Amino acid sequence: MKTRFGTRLLGLTLIAAIVLMTLVAGVAASPWAGDSIFSALLRGSNEVPIVVTNASGIAGVRFTASGSQLHYTVITRGVVNITASHIHCAAKGVNGPVGVTFEPQVPLMSGVVTAPDVNNRCGWTTLDDVFNALVAGNAYVNVHTLSNPAGLIRGQGFALQLP
After folding, report:
1. CATH for 4-161, among 3.30.70, 2.30.30, 3.40.50, 2.60.40?
2. Of 47, 95, 114, 142, which has the maximum CB count within 10 A?
3. What average pLDDT values come out for the chain (163 residues) when binned by 10 residues?
């Protein structure tokens, strides 16, 4: 018999596997070795202040070794009326400005970015700046909705290095 927690954990595990397979497939097709992948579990409990919600998600960001592209995939569960999704600059537990904008779609967002947002308040001018913020733990992915314009689910990234 599955418990509610067990079913939710299984769902998040499957989502994580899909995101990682998507990102790894991109690496396998990439002519560059050493692409860097960051991922984050998105939860309302990571928001500042905390948002009580059953919604969840996972975000994956892959930087090509050449540093010219950032590939992103965000998969959400239980999220409706997405208005925006971004990479923000700030440490865990702190809200920060937007540095990179993703194209909002439900339940899957996927795309390629070649530069941070122009004139962003993070001060990021290159993808190297975004990469360095993620490495330092000073960036997070946030999904915004009509009912939670400041953010419904959020996750601080952690690095995975592929050979």
Report:
1. 2.60.40
2. 142
3. 47 50 46 73 97 97 93 95 96 97 90 97 97 94 97 87 56
